[in-house]
Model the fold of this input.
Amino acid sequence: MAVHSHYCPLYNRQLLDAADDAIEEKKSPNWPRVFVHLDEQDTSLPGWAALQQLIEDAAKDGREKFSPRGDLGHELWSQIVTLPESIATLKRVKVFDLYGSPLLRIPPEIGRMESLEEFDPYTSYGLHWYPYEITQCKQLRKSRVSTRALYGNYKFRPSFPGLDPVIPQLISKQCSVCGTDLAGREVLQRWLSLCVATDILPLLVNACSEECIGGLPEGAAGYIQSPHMGGPKLKQPIELPNRRKIYIAGPSGQESAASATSGSGQLKGLSELPLFKAQVPAWKAEELRKQREALDTHLVEVPPHLRTKLGPEMKMGLHWVDVKLSSGLKFYNLAVRGGRFFVGLATDTESERKVPFASEDVIELRRHMPRWWPVW
Done:
């Protein structure tokens, strides 16, 4: 795996716990100064040459899914910390799979992947930010990122690296806004958090003028609304979104919130349990709404006499459990939402779904353990 050249606060468990506690108390977390990963790509490594060849082949054959991890293998893929500018040639790629990557940066040339519809850098924990140029991918509708790894994310509100002075290693060739050549010009760098596909991403803008900075859109709801230069003294919102509510777009496009419990204190159905998304486009919110309403018709409940074995509920609203059935079958790493409903298997990466057993089939349950743990 790529080795980061300096300490990163976003990997510090104690700092994350302290930030989470502060936000629960509606206080601003006390984050130390954060720096951008500036590790240089070693272009002499065989992984770099293999990746360039893979991109060239993908551009020639017009493939619609690009998954370098699977094509290169772990050894070569682990040598990569950024992608070549040649990703701009992947004009027909619709699905860009960067799951579990060792990447520290995505080049601005991603904005020229004009057919891109799905972007998946999930569990790429070194990717704390993305280039503003990704907003130029007009077909991009679906994304999956590790929110907790992002600068300014609503879960922990880590600080943004300071951009005063500018970070020369991150200056792009062209203005992120108007496309003007930046060679020999004074560059203005700013951070801006925007909704990209189905996630809110911290974006780095390289601009040629104050006019271009002024032409940027407002930040996402619940985030700093204007372009900023980061730094540890930057004040960020801490109350939106409420992590115990669901925020979805209603018929009129307005957001509505529903508590996870009804007025009587009874747990509501899955469609009213937390989505844990700060902002969702209307088309995606409607899709999620229908999906959850459909699931409500065939939810499988955790047997009441076994619920005490779940222990304290995790802060993200999920439990991960192993179950044993009366037939002798065992299922590992199941998701339980709201302390009541089984909502999927470990292999369910796309969505929540009905599990292949009934509530009365479950005879034993435990918090999830590795498979090599002592057998029941």
The first helix runs from residue 13 to 24. Confidence is low (pLDDT under 50) at residues 1-6, 241-280, 371-375. Residues 47 and 234 are 39 Å apart (CA to CA).
